[in-house]
Amino acid sequence: MPFNYPGGKSFTSNKPATNNKLSKIKPVSYGKRGMTLEEDVNDTNNYYLSRGLAVIHKKPTPVQIVQVDYPKRSAAVIKEAYFKQASTTDYNGVYKSHYIDFEAKETKNKTSFPLQNFHLHQINHMKQVMEQGGLAFVIIRFSTKEETYLVHGHSIFKWWNRMECGGRKSVTYEEITKEGYFIKTGLTPRLHYLPIIDQWLLQPVLQKESEE
Amino acid sequence: MPFNYPGGKSFTSNKPATNNKLSKIKPVSYGKRGMTLEEDVNDTNNYYLSRGLAVIHKKPTPVQIVQVDYPKRSAAVIKEAYFKQASTTDYNGVYKSHYIDFEAKETKNKTSFPLQNFHLHQINHMKQVMEQGGLAFVIIRFSTKEETYLVHGHSIFKWWNRMECGGRKSVTYEEITKEGYFIKTGLTPRLHYLPIIDQWLLQPVLQKESEE
């Protein structure tokens, strides 16, 4: 279990969540607990991009545009639009020639992660990615505990299937700590997840058996 | 020149361009000439996805959201938003484990393709992708001629550099036919570009020297 770093201490900051359009839509407040998961992931990806370590971007929020005005001498203004459900995951890109695809979700729950955080088409998309030889995973944060885990697509599919077969609609905290890989939070980058990917690429079927 | 198929005949259709939100913003009319390049590419990617051949999606149009209303008992309505410049290319995904990244552009010009169709950050993004081991390219259509070409990132970078060094601001039709790979248009899929990718993956430095 090389990536279950000891001590899940998070980097905290009082910097306000500016420049995040989504924060206007779904206000997320963690008081002094620091950044949202999305901000941490974006910050980390920017760090990776600036160092030439990986090229991973967040996709724009899908919007259904209904009405656009064209005022004279100024830019087009969207006057009516609606949020659309995404048909894929939020993040994708390339790392050491490998296609990387993931979703980042946080929960305030302390004991479990609700699977309703995903949509069926996102699960299907991740399966398609894996079948095509890409690497699909999710980053899950228990925000109250300040703990973030990288969870391989195979684990997500297993838990999703369990739900579809009538089992529980969530994944317990213990299951995630057992199958997921703890991501140490730091200053730069805030959420250094590439070392875990390196392990997966070296040992594609790594299952942390040593713990079982 | 294994992919310069003879006869650049296009599939034409009178089906109206429905379900394409962008067509409301920038109306594109080709009369009886058939679909826009974007529609052809999306249709082709849907075909690839449904057959399990590749997982390639168009990214949503980036929008800067300024004001959102939350009417009671109904969905949130975006009341003010603006189009943002994309920071990456429009399409990416995974094909046979390889990361694929591209932009699709069409011109009504008959003799050249203006490089102002790209933004500097799109060129930089394609360079970052190539440096990380991904495959970046563009699909260029001369809509008046009904001819579509797959052009490798290396060719685009070369022409872009020429412009930056004071050279011409466009690429001649002859240059594109020489360095690009003609994509045969058909019914299903409409724009079968994967066979060209296969050649590139087999021979990464393929330069069509035989023609020179």
Automatic annotation (TrEMBL), chains A, B:
A single BP term in Gene Ontology: DNA repair
Q: What is its EC number?
A: 3.1.21.10
| Primary localization class, coarse | cytoplasm
Positions of Mg(2+) binding: T88, D90, E103, Q122
**InterPro entries (UniProt xref):** Resolv_RecU, Restrct_endonuc-II-like, tRNA_endonuc-like_dom_sf
Query: What does the cofactor field's note say?
Result: Binds 1 Mg(2+) ion per subunit.
Pfam families assigned? RecU
Cofactor entry: Mg(2+)
- Listed GO CC annotations: cytoplasm
- The answer, when asked if Metal-binding is one of the entry's keywords, is yes
Which reaction(s) are listed as its catalytic activity? Answer: Endonucleolytic cleavage at a junction such as a reciprocal single-stranded crossover between two homologous DNA duplexes (Holliday junction)
Keyword Repressor part of the UniProt annotation: no
Disordered as annotated region, ranges? 1-24
Localization per record: Cytoplasm
Give the record's keywords alphabetically: Cytoplasm, DNA damage, DNA recombination, DNA repair, Endonuclease, Hydrolase, Magnesium, Metal-binding, Nuclease
Query: What is this protein's function per UniProt?
Result: Endonuclease that resolves Holliday junction intermediates in genetic recombination. Cleaves mobile four-strand junctions by introducing symmetrical nicks in paired strands. Promotes annealing of linear ssDNA with homologous dsDNA. Required for DNA repair, homologous recombination and chromosome segregation.
The name of this protein is: Holliday junction resolvase RecU
Q: Which organism is it from?
A: Mangrovibacillus cuniculi
